Amino acid sequence: MPLDYYEDDDDKGSAGRGGRKDFDCPECSANNPLDDALADGQEVLCNYCGCSFLVKATDDGRFKFREI
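-> structure tokens emitted (68 positions)
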């Protein structure tokens, strides 16, 4: 069974440009600032609801998140 990823449809940055330093939680929609830019394979934690996600960079430069 394939893993389900949530797409990040925010246009504040992308994997191709390498400068995205925040993410919107797919679970609660809260915006979470980050110290470092998002990267493929990174694990991120929502500071509001506590859910953890694995970040996947797509070929078109966007990010997807899978709850872990």
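The radius of gyration is 11 Å.
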